[in-house]
Amino acid sequence: MDPTAVIGKTRAVSTPSSPRYTPPKDLSAYAWLSIGAAVTTIALKAFAAWLTGSVGLLSDAAESVVNLVAAVVALIVLKIAIRPADDDHQFGHSKAEYFSAITEGVMIFVAAAFIIISAVERLITPVMPEQLSVGLIISVGASAVNGAVSWVLRRAGRREGSAALLADAKHLATDVVTSAAVLVGVGLVALVGSPVLDAVVALGAGLNIMWTGFKLIRESVGGLMDAAPGGQAQARIEEVLDEHRRAGRIDFHAVRLREAGNRRFAHLHVLVPGEWSVKRGHDFTERVIDDLVAVDPNLRVSAHLEPIEDPKSYEDVEDV
Ligand SMILES: [Zn+2]
Ligand SMILES: [Zn+2]
User: Fold this and answer.
1) 282 Cα: distance to centroid of ligand 1 (angstroms)
2) Domains in the chain, please, with CATH?
3) Residue 8 has what pLDDT?
4) Would you give the DSSP letter of residue 11?
5) What's the rounded Cα separation, in Å, for the pair 112 and 172?
6) Could you tell me the distance, in angstroms and rounded to a whole number, from the CA of residue 2 to the centre of ligand 1?
7) Which of 29, 46, 94, 208 could bridge across to 260 with cysteines, CB 3.0–4.6 Å?
8) Could you tell me the distance, in angstroms and rounded to a whole number, from the CA of residue 230 to the centre of ligand 1?
9) 202-227 pLDDT, tens per residue?
10) Interface predicted TM-score (ipTM) of this complex, two decimals
11) Residue 23 C-alpha to ligand 1 middle, in angstroms?
């Protein structure tokens, strides 16, 4: 049976937002699937490491801890970050993602340090792993679980347009690749009979895990600092605004963009002729917002209307 058939039964979270914005769906069941897969693979890989005494396989188990961490971040994003604004958090809850991701990044660092220390110890006093073939079979089985869950998450992420699910799927897929590298290395240990190689494999995996943690922290700090979104996000907004600009009559300024979770938030000033009625100005602004959201459905727009000929309208360009 197609596993997505059951988990795919998502329900819409009711939000008081305008009909222009589609209410977010509760996709947290996928995060729970991911957490279950991570716990299963950690158990299998840790058992394989214990059985063989291989630090290479132990590093692979530590890498699965990173999966667990990524799945928990995904759950927080899908469950908390998506909540609509309330009295206590009037801009919504999207930054929960970064707060948790920084904590998790630090945890990943600790896991990596643990692996690197174990690997260095084994480099100094090498120990030959035992029963490597059994350990390898168990680890391959664990990687197969990761691969299958990654496939389910990617399908759901594409269908629902969820960046959190796609990121988690990508993470699991990367893990399958690094696990394969570790397994090839440990397989060579068995073939060559070199205990030093086992420690070298673990050291490489440990450094790779540390790099993952560093990237996670760097991205989260960028999000907390309201770093401007990369890629085409800004260019797409400017394109839409240019279509509405009319020399001397209609203009936009103080266009600012920030990103939180999988949503982007734009703030801008809309400059129109001062003789326009409030209704005309508002109708025009609503059209501009509709066009912006049509280009980027995950964009939330807040606009400030001002008369184009009034010098006061230009005093606030630098105000944040
Ligand atoms: Zn309005
Ligand atoms: Zn202004």
Assistant:
1) 6
2) 3-224 (1.20.1510.10), 233-314 (3.30.70.1350)
3) 39
4) -
5) 17
6) 44
7) 94
8) 28
9) 888 889 888 888 887 887 787 778 77
10) 0.82
11) 18
Both tokens of 260, joined, read: 């939180």
251 Cα: distance to centroid of ligand 2 (angstroms) = 10
Q: Return the SS3 of 242.
A: helix
Distance in Å, CA 256 to ligand 1 centroid: 19
Specify the pLDDT at position 22. 67
CA of 295 to the centre of ligand 1 (A): 19
Nearest ligand for residue 303 CA:
1
**Distance (Å, rounded) from C-alpha 307 to C-alpha 272?**
5
CA of 320 to the centre of ligand 2 (A): 11
Q: What are phi and psi of 95, to 5 degrees?
A: -75, -5
Question: CB neighbours of 283 closer than 8 A, spacing ≥ 6?
Answer: none
Q: Give the distance (Å) from ligand 1 centre to CA of residue 94.
A: 23
> Which stretches of the chain score pLDDT less than 70?
1-18, 22-24, 161, 163, 261-262
- What was the pLDDT predicted at 224? 78
Rg (CA), the chain: 25
Residues in the chain: 320
Backbone angles phi, psi at 302, to 5 degrees: -125, 125
CA dihedral 173, 70, 162, 286 (to 10 degrees): -140
Tell me the residues surrounding ligand 2 (ion) with CB < 5 Å.
269, 313, 316
Residue with tokens 């999988």: 262
CA distances from residue 35 to 54, 67, 235, 311 in whole angstroms, order as listed: 25, 8, 37, 56
Ligand nearest to the CA of 256: 2
pLDDT for 7 equals 43
Q: Which of 16, 284, 231, 222 is nearest to 292 (CA)?
A: 284
pLDDT at 161: 65
Q: What are phi and psi of 10, to 5 degrees?
A: -95, 155
